[in-house]
């Protein structure tokens, strides 16, 4: 590890159910790595999929980590509560030409994906919205 860089690792579960053993194992690895390198173990909650969110899921994650002695140094950072922060950065990226809006419908993207699969090509977004001129977007 570089001397001048502090290690920061994160565990980012989704509260779509109770914390399972695989998630706990990942948290343990990250926790031990952070502690070995005198770094920070950060808890970030990926709760942006509101449809799949389970009542009590967040509390279960926190309680399970604590019961196992995996105390986080920062957080929990709840993604859905940080949308304004992300919007500010997205707006800056778009303004500087480093990102763009996509106007493709889900069905259109699925059709593109299926055509690629038929041709045995790796599936990826064509990027066609990146080619739109500002006048076409506004």
Give me the secondary-structure topology:
Elements: E1 8-11, H1 21-36, E2 40-45, H2 57-67, E3 74-78, H3 83-95, H4 106-118, H5 134-137
Parallel strand pairs: 1-2, 2-3
Walkthrough of the structure:
The protein is of the alpha/beta class and 138 residues long. It has two domains: 8-80, Rossmann fold (3-Layer(aba) Sandwich), CATH 3.40.50.620; 85-130, no CATH class. It is 41% helix and 11% strand. It contains five helices and three strands. A three-stranded parallel sheet has the order 1-2-3. Strand 2 (40-45), helix 2 (57-67) and strand 3 form a beta-alpha-beta unit. The protein is extended. The termini are far apart. The mean pLDDT is 92.
Short description:
By secondary structure, the chain is an alpha/beta fold. The chain contains five helices and three strands, in the order E-H-E-H-E-H-H-H.
